[in-house]
Amino acid sequence: MSDNGTRTVHTDGVRLGYRSWGSGKGVPVVLLHCLGEDGEDWRGPLVPGLAGEHPVHALDLRGHGESDRPGSYAMDDFVGDLRGFLDVLGIDRVILVGHSFGSVVAYLFAQEHPARVDRLVLEETTAMRPVRPPREVPEPPEEPALFDWDVVVQWTRQRNDPDPRWWDRLPAVTAPTLLVGGGNGSHLPQQDLHLMADRMPDARVVTIDGAGHLVHETRPMEFTRAVLDFLAES
Prior knowledge:
- The protein has one domain (7-232): Alpha/Beta hydrolase fold, catalytic domain (Rossmann fold, 3-Layer(aba) Sandwich).
- It is 32% helix and 19% strand.
- It contains eight helices and eight strands.
- The protein has an eight-stranded mixed sheet with strand order 1-2-4-3-5-6-7-8, sandwiched between helices.
- Strand 3, helix 1 (46-51) and strand 4 (56-59) form a beta-alpha-beta unit.
- Helix 2 (75-89) crosses helix 3 (101-112).
- The termini are far apart.
């Protein structure tokens, strides 16, 4: 364990950093951060709200935080890392909570491994359909980024021209799913959340209007309450 409480595991030769809280007997929860952040981004009321009932793990996605920067950042790589992480920790069934980029990793995993996902929370998620006109691949910042900038480069290309199966297989996400939108102030089309929910067998949208894209940061108590109420449903 590092000085900041980060632990590491290895899967398929990639080191992944993560933080853990709680000792409850409920289904384990894995938190997946957005592009450019790491597991520290989840420190706030959500973690103690969950940790009384569930073991909680906040993963650093590859290229971020204490995890390796292997240079390959296909979405399949992130999904494979998540699968390996769960296998190493002995987690057969998981609750996934993802924000933005991390939410895409979460629902792609749920498409491939529906039996392993108990519930799914997607905060300000992205509908993976072609972007027209395509976004320009951004140049790296003048100051070194705190994460591997190649993640942004490869993500932009995949976002512009996504694999069609990522949209087509949304009906394979069988876990009860909560999509949380930030309403006014979000740069994402909020209607996309409803379109995604309509394609999933058991999904609904909650909008925390005015929260913008960083719902769990700008409106932490409302976000936490929405998540906890959803998880408490029978």
